[in-house]
Specification:
Bound molecules: pyridoxal-5'-phosphate
Number of helices: 14
Helix content: 25-40%
Strand order of the largest sheet: 4-10-9-8-7-5-6
Shape: globular
Largest sheet: 7 strands, mixed
Radius of gyration: 22 Å
Strand content: 15-25%
């Protein structure tokens, strides 16, 4: 059994009042709140261990370097990657995908094909469209049905001899669908095609094992897993990363530079140009420790319990429609109420102390699928409670009465 009250004490922000009402924070898929240990780790490093990494022989620089590299090992263990060289620190999911679209993408030719899905976040659509403009690659889109499940039959039929990459979301940030990534990878590998997994909404909630999935790239954001903003991870298989040219040029990513010729560093540094967010990297390592100390399986079971409870309660409300009914679904509930605009619902819930997401959730093709311009989304983390869901559901009912 998790001691949720004890966990909540680690998050000072949860004690905030909003318009005099206790905050009910249900916007966790957008960003999670940070536990004390993470905030303290950042503060502590600036107070005691701050120096640029990899550049100095001096004590502080060596310490800061060691802290960053320890964090890399923690991420490797968290994802079960084969080597820490396969762990590249980025700004987040978006940068990870842009890195692959730019560096791996530069190896592609006009007419080469990339498969994405209809339920992608914009960050797994627009980088490929930019590549399309630069290099004339073709984007193919796997559709989903009204329950929010991908059409895997159509997916399997999309491969041609020009298919070069599949880039698919693990858990939809709108529908909560948990896509069968192992099967998706296995089909792609059957055609010799590598797969990138957008794990922004899976890594924070359940065990993601890159070697079990056998994906070729995987990206996630620190801020969605209790860590600070501005730090994230790209996992890539060594043989692919080695073949890819650098993403950005600058310090840290070279071994020698002259005006005639520059030699690049080996991975992961080849992809980490400039002073990295070493303080964020260390804090990410601390956030992953925090998650592991509680236990990812326990977190997952608890969050699913919350999501099921919320779904049951909301389903009883007349005129309320829930989007995303996949058999495998994670802790996200998106909905609309007949006759009430999502922005009005979100604004009025906010006045009652409830923080939910409204709008297109950076996934406009999903909105187009359902012919709506936005939805209201509640998403859960380990510090949420059934009592908060009761407040939330009561607040939704109160808003409905206002119309
Ligand atoms: N992919 C998914 C599924 C997401 O939910 C998000 C953020 O909401 C992103 C990508 C983008 O993450 P970031 O803005 O941290 O780069």
């Amino acid at each position: 059994m998790l001691d949720i009250n004890k966990i909540r004490e680690e998050f000072p922000i949860l004690g905030t009042k909003v318009y005099g009402k206790p905050l009910v924070y249900l916007d966790n898929a957008a960003t999670m709140q940070k536990p004390r240990v993470v905030v303290e780790a950042e503060r502590e490093q600036y107070y005691t261990n701050n120096a640029n990494v990899h550049r100095g022989v001096h004590y502080l620089s060596q310490q800061a370097t060691e802290m960053q590299e320890n964090a890399r090992v923690k991420v490797r263990n968290f994802l079960n990657a084969a080597s820490e060289q396969e762990i590249i620190f980025t700004r987040g999911t978006t940068e990870g995908i842009n890195l692959v679209a730019t560096a791996f993408g530069s190896l592609l030719k006009e007419g080469d094909e990339i498969i994405v899905s209809e339920m992608e976040h914009h960050s797994n659509i627009v980088p490929w469209q930019l590549l399309q403009q630069r290099q004339g690659v073709v984007l193919k889109v796997v559709p989903f049905d009204d329950n929010g499940e991908l059409d895997l039959q159509k997916y399997a039929e999309m491969f041609t001899e020009r298919t070069r990459l599949v880039s698919i979301v693990h858990v939809s940030n709108v529908l909560g669908t948990v896509n069968p990534v192992k099967d998706i990878v296995s089909v792609a590998h059957g055609h010799g095609v590598p797969v990138l997994i957008d794990a922004a909404q899976s890594v924070p909630h359940f065990k993601v094992d890159v070697r079990d999935i056998d994906c070729d790239f995987l990206v996630f954001s620190g801020h969605k897993v209790y860590a600070p903003t501005g730090i994230g991870v790209l996992y890539g298989k060594r043989e692919l990363l080695d073949k890819m040219p650098p993403y950005q040029g600058g310090g840290e990513m070279i071994s020698t530079v002259s005006f005639e010729h520059t030699e690049y560093e080996t991975i992961p540094y080849k992809f980490e140009a400039g002073t990295p967010n070493y303080v964020g990297a260390n804090a990410l390592g601390i956030a992953l420790d925090f998650v592991e100390n509680i236990g990812l399986d326990k977190i997952h079971n608890y969050e699913l319990q919350l999501a099921n409870y919320a779904t049951e309660q909301l389903s009883r409300i007349d005129g309320l429609r829930i989007f995303g009914r996949a058999a495998q679904k994670d802790a996200v509930v998106s909905f609309l109420v007949d006759g009430i605009h999502h922005l009005d619902m979100g604004t009025l819930l906010d006045r009652l102390g409830i923080a939910v997401r409204t709008g297109h959730h950076c996934a406009q093709p999903i909105m187009t699928h359902y012919n709506v311009d936005g939805m209201v989304r509640a998403s859960f983390a380990v510090y949420n409670t059934e009592q908060e869901i009761d407040f939330f559901v009561a607040a939704v009912k109160r808003v409905i009465q206002m119309f």
